[in-house]
Structure formats: C-alpha cells, structure tokens
Structure to design on (170 residues):
C-alpha cells in the first residue's frame, strides 16, 4: 500500500496537511472495526491507516518514506558525519539546556524551523536529481531536528511546571 495513494495525495514532500487529515478521517470511518463485518480485518486495516497517517504527518518520516518508495532508505539510522552540522547540534543542545525562559526556547525553535526549511529545499533538489546519498543525509538531519523540537517541547513543559503554582489566583 502506498501511503500517498491511500490518502489521495501527490507523492511529494510538500503535502496539504488539511487534506491529509480529512482523508485520514474518511479512511478511518470506512474501515472502523465497529462498522465492519470482519472486525479482525478492519482492525488490521485501521492500524495500517494509522501508521500511514503518522508517517505522512511528520516531515522527517515523510521524507524517509519517499526514500522507501524508491528503495533508497537504507542506513537512515546511521550517524551524521557532517562535522559542521554536529558542531551546530552540540551548541543547540547546550542552548536548550541553558534556556531559562519560554522566549529563549521559542528563539531556538524558530532557528530550527528555519534550518529545517533549508534542508527541505535541499532534500527536494537531491531527491529530484536522484542524489540518494545526499538525500539520506538530509533525512538524518531532519530526524535530528525533530528530536530536538521534541526536547524543546519537554523543556517548555518543565518551565511551565516550574512556574505553575496551585496557590496562584486565576
């Protein structure tokens, strides 16, 4: 099953997220176990639909899936060897650890989004030119940035928890 075909989307890194969500919900209704005579098959199909949605909904997973479709997804879990990127990554991690306010974390998030956009454009070029080694390297970097964004979300949660006091008046 091709996930893009399942949700009636073009095979592309750039997809309409609203259309993805709408088509996901339509598929879920169609294959909901409570509406099917064959519940076991419906559960399997529903699980496949959920996996397809999760894959296409997240940028780095969608890029990796594009490589899967052309059988170029090997070694995506391999380490990143770009020394400049690794140095920037180390500095980024340190900045997250040192951040004391939500605004500092937002600045870091904005930097990551900007860097991600640059990587997206480079990925699309490399993918279209069938430069698979470079495209795989970009997917690794996108996956790293996604993990960093998750870490920033956790840091924001910690800041919120540290600043939240039940005795505060609302």
């Amino acid at each position: 099953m091709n996930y893009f075909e399942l949700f009636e989307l073009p095979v592309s890194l750039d997809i309409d997220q609203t259309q993805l969500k709408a088509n996901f919900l339509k598929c879920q209704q169609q294959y909901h176990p409570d509406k099917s005579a064959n519940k076991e098959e419906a559960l399997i199909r529903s699980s496949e639909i959920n996996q397809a949605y999760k894959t296409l909904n997240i940028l780095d997973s969608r890029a990796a899936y594009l490589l899967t479709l052309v059988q170029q997804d090997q070694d995506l879990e391999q380490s990143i060897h770009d020394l400049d990127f690794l140095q920037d990554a180390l500095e980024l991690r340190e900045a997250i650890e040192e951040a004391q306010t939500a605004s500092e974390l937002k600045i870091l998030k904005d930097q990551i989004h900007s860097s991600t956009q640059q990587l997206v454009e480079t990925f699309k070029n490399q993918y279209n030119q069938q430069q698979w080694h470079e495209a795989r390297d970009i997917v690794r970097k996108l996956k790293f940035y996604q993990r960093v964004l998750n870490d920033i979300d956790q840091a924001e949660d910690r800041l919120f928890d540290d600043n939240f006091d039940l005795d505060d008046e609302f």
The chain has a mean pLDDT of 90. The chain has seven helices and no strands. Helices lie at 3-6, 17-30, 39-57, 59-69, 83-98, 102-128, 132-163.
